Amino acid sequence: MRLFLIIAFISFSILGFSQTSLPYNLGEYAAYKISFGAINVGYAELEVKEIISVNNKPSFHIIGKGRTAPFFDWVFKVRDVYETFIDTSTLLPLVFNREVREGRHVISQKYNFNHNNENVVTQDSTFNIPIQTQDMLSAFFYARTFKKDSILNVGSFYVPIFMDDENYFLEIKYLKNEIIETEWGKVDCMVFQPKMQEGRIFEDGEEMKIWISDDKNHLLLRVETKIWTGLIKAVLQEYKHVKHPLSIIEE
């Protein structure tokens, strides 16, 4: 699940947005099947749950979950929950919660972001952060607000992300547009290539690609990454309450 979320982070400081042009609705839900080769290994889901007040600011409450398929629960059970509260006026995170249960590996994190002071407070420390810093989940939803015209003639973009008590930058490169087959028909997608700092999450950013619908939704449809033992895929299996109809190419 951690890998699935990280690869979706495409946010650019120059893009700009407005509330009326946000590509997602309250109640939007997307579910993904994660496979390794031909084997279904798990599932992930993202939901825009509600708008609530956090620090006296209206905030999107968004939840991401990941779990292993039933067969793999016997081998290495995964139950991950990511939760972010995003200021509706700035699309910057205010609070981030992370509960990871992967076999015997347990992570529990809570981050309180203070963007005016350029710091984040964790359970036991305070860290300085760059301006416009995102968390692991908020970055994806901020990414969806980008304007395609802003990226076509520019090379790589960078976004600051705070994760595991560290700051780092994610580099994103737009590759091309590609029409892919989905359960609902053919969809024109923008293809991006993320590159992480060496040793972070995955080492070879050149081997990873993501597909996002080239329509008003900017919906994540597919993720693929090559590792030394094979190919990992995350593919959209279900979506509900999207703001605009998914743009299906008619035959």
Fold-level CATH name: YmcC-like fold
Whole-number count of domains: 1
Share in β-strands: over 45%
Report the total helices.
3
Assign a percent range to the helix content.
Answer: under 10%
- Could you say what the CATH architecture is? Beta Barrel
Largest sheet features: 15 strands, antiparallel
User: Can you tell me the residue ranges where pLDDT is under 50 for at least 5 consecutive residues?
Assistant: 1-19, 201-205
* Topology order in helix (H) and strand (E) letters: HEEEHEEEEEHEEEEEEE
Given the helix and strand composition, which structural class is it? Answer: mainly beta
Topology:
Blueprint: H1 2-6, E1 29-36, E2 39-54, E3 57-68, H2 70-76, E4 78-87, E5 93-102, E6 105-114, E7 119-121, E8 126-128, H3 138-143, E9 156-163, E10 166-182, E11 185-195, E12 208-213, E13 220-227, E14 230-240, E15 248-249
Antiparallel strand pairs: 1-2, 1-14, 2-3, 3-4, 4-5, 5-6, 6-7, 7-8, 9-10, 10-11, 11-12, 11-15, 12-13, 13-14
